[in-house]
Write a structure and sequence with these properties.
This protein is an all-beta fold and 70 residues long. The chain has one domain. The protein contains no helices and six strands. The strands form three sheets. A two-stranded antiparallel sheet has the order 1-6. A hairpin with a 2-residue loop joins strand 3 and strand 4. It starts with 8 loop residues before the first strand and ends in a 9-residue tail after the last strand.
Amino acid sequence: MSNAGVQELKMFGVFQHAHLAGVAITTRHYRNDTELPPIMTDPNYDFNFQEVRKLPQERTIYPVRSVTKI
């Protein structure tokens, strides 16, 4: 994002994907080393039922300003 000069992204939907072994899936969001509320959780994930799901509220994604090395 930073290299393209993009200041923010507006997320309005999620397409979660796991292979056949996936049975539950959570899309998480971190900002400045802090975990924000999960974006989407599907405790009953079904590989045969993949679709874009609209978020109840739009989320803003910002570019990474600094990288924490582990």
